[in-house]
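I would like you to help me understand the sequence and structure tokens below and explain how sequence relates to structure.
___
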Amino acid sequence: MRSVVLYVDLLRMQLVARGQYRADFLTGVAASILQHMATLGTLWLIFAQVPALGGWNVAQAAVLYGFFSLTLGLTNFLASGLRDLPNMVRQGELDGFLVQPASAYVQLLPRINLNAISDVAVSLTVLLGAAQSAGVRWSLPVAAYALLAMVCGTAIFLGFLTAVYSLSFWTPYPGLMGGLEGLTQLARFPAGIYPRWLQVIITWVFPVAFTGHFPAAVLTGVEAVPWWTALAGLGLAAAALGAGAAMWRWGLSRYEGAGN
């Protein structure tokens, strides 16, 4: 509980500090809008050539993309500091966290990127607009499922990114981590377009299908999704968080400081 209170306090202070830079925030909003427009434009070009993609029409694929973007945006908002870890390890800045009477991980996470805030807002707008076009019928159970799937998807991304950026303790150069993080982009499209072996990987090994594909399939009804996928999503989210925590503890246990 103490760590949760500390995290919330640090997050609030970051929000207050970042809120002083309104021009940066507006620039981030504009950049986020352009990025999403480019991706949605790519989807439109694809569907201009084919009537369906893995059985999904353009509105349903946009719901998938919106859900994926929202969960990734929430992860970036809540844990932007993970991407600073390679430089902090290389420059010795992490040492300052380790001498504090609090978790270094909790201190690291809430280093807010203003682009993440705008990305959440734009992604939510894309999701709601696409859901309307796809004929999603909102009800209390549907909204509850969407919220649960969003929490699970965010936890999956958080666990994965924690594990990936914990590699900084072995090789504090961001190129490798950025390349591995790029694997999350597989979740932007329906899982059915990938080969069977890759579908298995993104469902059960690297479960990004639970950050977009399965939630969107349930919302739009494009595929018959078994009821137990919700429970599987909870289990995989817990497993991802556990794997990320184990990787963090392992890396931190071998960290010897910057030597200065």
Summary: DSSP finds twelve helices and no strands in the chain.
